[in-house]
């Protein structure tokens, strides 16, 4: 009894002997081999078109015909041979065997010389009644092979097509390692037995300090679970990484696995989706079964919104039974684990609002970790990571690059560094310098320069006045973004552009938004004032200004007639507006009023600084590209500093200085510097 119990326990632990997995590929191979041998061997006697044959001379052939042994003759002009088919009653005379031994339609193979002489002979013997008929066969190949090919070629193609369909149905032969149709329900997850082999740790994840701190606890759970379970705590079952694309969610999950040193199952949400019903749920069960055998481990599901989307309340209206069944299986597996099984599910998505509420509850995904776009300090750290493999100039200012790329994700910054290296290589530079990075940012934001685009002098002047209008207004508005450079070189769809260092504010006031709106309308105002007409060049500016105005009034409650009211509606596919027609008219009126006020303000500022604006436009026409230094030379120093510069100044002021340190620290620093100088001199 005890032996039986031990045996059952061993089976529960997964120690039972593993049986070899049946593979359908052996059947396909066997069928192909049999078919090939069958065809190449002629298919046996039952498939043979002709019976026995023997060689004979041309003289002997004439004697056979004269004696009436032949029934018909087939002539091959290309090979200069003929086949004389022997009459059944004369088989014994020719082959010295009976009819059963030679098979059906035995013949004599004869080589001849002259075709004309042969035709005369056959015509004469046919008239004499010695042969029934004669025909021609000009096929230079083997008649047996050709016959078999025409007869069994379609069958062979059908077998090959079936083999290909079976491979396609099994996901290319790589599903679950089996490669057959019976493995279609197996998981497609990639298993990394040792996640350390990925070579990714928290050192490779720059910025995202808050997210790293959150996932650091998951690593501790996996490394030392007793530390928490002894106190009665439960290891979290899952963590959801939420954030915009390119912020490093997948990288963070790989870093967690690399730090923990546990098996890592990686798959995408779309890997569960298949054309067959029930396959998705089967794959969910399979990957969780494998993970339980490998515990402690991590399952990472990227883009989980592909399978975790909220279930439809009305199945008849847009419901997807297969996807919902897959989601139900996922919910069951995540909630069906043992309390301390050691399996943690990490998932990533940039559309958390679309996920099912049952998936987000505690007990499935215990934590939601926000992986946001990096701020100024984090972008600096990300630049340092991506600049490691590059040969950069020593004078490169990383702080400036971080300020130049607001709103960039980690993937965008990596693209900037790569693009800068390509630009430097294009110019045959030995190192990547500051200008290469600026060109890379301009290339990514604005598009490729189109210096070949031909413009008239009037068009060029109109564009210069437009861009100079933006620069002038932004210079004299306190809360407008600081100017970097202005260009009238066409890029992408734009005929000109002004580059700014956008302010990264935690909160935005009404005055700040109005200043930015005024700067946007500066181009159109300059066109109307100094050219007397307006153009389509301000379409993008007007679009941005209008969206900003609607956001301020309808969402932020910054209107005099609609104060402190937000009409924001996050319900997708809802065609009814959350306000009445009367309110819509009020919103439209307020938007028009706000834009007209800022447009009049922009025209007033341009009138006040008309001289400087014209000088700036003429400089643009001459040089095509001008910088903030040129604007400062024309208008004077800007009386306000940017928010980013203010933060940098505060940080520099808070850095402790050496002279304020105790004497012991000063002595240690002096000894350190002395040792460095000594080492340099020795080298």
List the helices and strands and how they pair.
Blueprint: H1 2-12, H2 25-40, E1 53-56, H3 58-66, E2 70-76, E3 81-86, H4 91-95, H5 99-102, E4 107-111, H6 115-127, E5 133-136, H7 143-169, E6 190-192, H8 209-223, H9 226-229, E7 238-242, H10 249-260, E8 264-268, H11 279-294, E9 297-302, H12 321-335, E10 343-349, H13 357-360, E11 367-370, H14 376-386, H15 398-404, H16 410-426, H17 434-446, H18 457-476, E12 483-487, E13 497-500, H19 510-520, H20 522-531, H21 539-555, H22 581-608, H23 610-623, E14 625-627, H24 628-635, H25 643-654, H26 663-682
Parallel strand pairs: 1-4, 2-5, 7-10, 7-11, 8-9, 9-10
Antiparallel strand pairs: 2-3, 3-4, 6-8, 12-13, 12-14
Explained architecture:
Helix content is 50%, strand content 10%. By secondary structure, the protein is α/β, with parallel strands linked by helices. It has 5 domains: 57-140, name from scop; 185-370, 3-Layer(aba) Sandwich (Rossmann fold), CATH 3.40.50; 376-446, Helicase, Ruva Protein, domain 3; 457-640, Peptidase M41 (Methane Monooxygenase Hydroxylase, Chain G, domain 1), CATH 1.20.58; 644-683. It has a 6-stranded mixed β-sheet with strand order 6-8-9-10-7-11. A hairpin with a 4-residue loop joins strand 2 (70-76) and strand 3 (81-86). Helix 18 (457-476) runs antiparallel to helix 19, helix 18 crosses helix 23 and helix 21 (539-555) packs across helix 22.
């Amino acid at each position: 009894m005890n032996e039986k119990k031990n045996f059952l326990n061993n089976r529960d632990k997964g120690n039972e002997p593993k049986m070899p997995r049946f593979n359908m590929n052996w059947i396909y191979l066997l069928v192909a081999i049999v078919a090939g041998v069958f065809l190449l061997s002629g298919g046996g006697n039952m498939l043979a078109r002709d019976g026995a044959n023997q060689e004979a001379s041309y003289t002997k052939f004439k004697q056979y015909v004269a004696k009436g042994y032949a029934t018909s003759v087939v002539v091959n002009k290309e090979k200069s041979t003929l086949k004389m088919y022997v009459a059944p009653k004369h088989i014994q005379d020719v082959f010295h065997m009976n009819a059963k031994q030679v098979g059906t339609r035995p013949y004599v193979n004869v080589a001849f010389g002259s075709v004309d002489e042969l035709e005369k002979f056959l015509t004469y013997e046919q008239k004499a009644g010695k042969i029934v008929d004669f025909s021609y066969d000009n096929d230079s190949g083997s008649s047996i092979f050709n016959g078999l090919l025409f007869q069994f070629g379609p069958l062979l193609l059908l077998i090959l097509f079936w083999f290909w369909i079976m491979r396609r149905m099994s996901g290319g032969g790589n599903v679950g390692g089996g490669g057959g149709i019976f493995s279609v329900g197996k998981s497609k997850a990639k298993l990394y037995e040792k996640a350390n082999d990925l070579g990714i740790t928290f050192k490779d994840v720059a910025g995202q300090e808050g997210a790293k701190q959150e996932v650091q606890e998951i690593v501790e759970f996996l490394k030392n679970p007793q530390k928490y379970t002894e106190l009665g705590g439960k290891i979290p079952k899952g963590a959801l990484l939420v954030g915009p694309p390119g912020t490093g969610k997948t990288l963070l999950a790989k870093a967690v696995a690399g730090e923990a040193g546990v098996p890592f199952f990686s798959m995408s949400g779309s890997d569960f989706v298949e054309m067959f019903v029930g396959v998705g749920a089967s794959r969910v069960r399979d990957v969780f079964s494998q993970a339980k055998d490998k515990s402690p481990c991590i399952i990472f599901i990227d883009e989980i919104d592909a399978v975790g989307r909220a279930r439809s309340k009305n199945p008849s209206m847009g419901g997807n039974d297969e996807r919902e069944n897959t989601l139900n299986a996922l919910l069951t597996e995540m909630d069906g684990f043992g309390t301390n099984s050691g399996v943690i599910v990490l998932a990533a998505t940039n559309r958390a609002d679309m996920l099912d509420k049952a998936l987000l509850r505690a007990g499935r995904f215990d934590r939601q970790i926000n992986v946001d776009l990096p701020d100024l300090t984090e972008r600096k750290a990300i630049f340092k990571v991506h600049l490691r493999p590059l040969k950069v100039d020593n004078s490169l200012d990383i702080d400036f690059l971080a300020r130049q790329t607001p709103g960039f994700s980690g993937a965008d910054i990596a693209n900037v560094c790569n693009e800068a290296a390509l630009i430097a290589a294009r110019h045959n530079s030995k190192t990547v310098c500051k200008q290469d990075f600026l060109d890379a940012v301009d290339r990514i934001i604005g598009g490729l320069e189109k210096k070949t685009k031909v413009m008239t002098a009037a068009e060029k002047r109109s564009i210069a006045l437009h861009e100079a209008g933006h620069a002038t207004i932004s210079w004299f508005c306190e809360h407008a973004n600081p100017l970097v450079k202005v260009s009238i070189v066409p890029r992408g769809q734009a005929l000109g552009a002004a580059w700014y260092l956008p302010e990264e504010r935690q909160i935005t006031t009404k005055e700040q938004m109005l200043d930015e709106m005024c700067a946007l309308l500066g181009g159109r105002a300059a066109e109307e004032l100094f050219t007397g007409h307006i153009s389509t060049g301000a379409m993008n500016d007007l679009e941005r200004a209008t969206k900003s105005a609607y956001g301020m009034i309808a969402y932020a409650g910054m209107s005099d007639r609609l104060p402190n009211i937000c009409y924001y509606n996050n319900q997708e596919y809802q065609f009814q507006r959350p306000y009445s027609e009367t309110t819509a008219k009020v919103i439209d009126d307020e938007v028009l009023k706000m834009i007209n006020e800022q447009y009049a303000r922009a025209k007033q500022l341009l009138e006040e600084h008309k001289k400087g604006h014209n000088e700036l436009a003429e400089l643009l026409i001459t040089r095509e590209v001008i910088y903030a230094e040129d604007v400062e030379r024309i208008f004077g120093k800007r009386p306000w500093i940017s928010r980013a510069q203010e933060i940098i100044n505060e940080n520099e002021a808070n850095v402790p200085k050496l002279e304020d340190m105790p004497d012991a620290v000063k002595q240690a620093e002096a000894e350190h510097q002395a040792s460095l100088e000594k080492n340099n001199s020795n080298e």
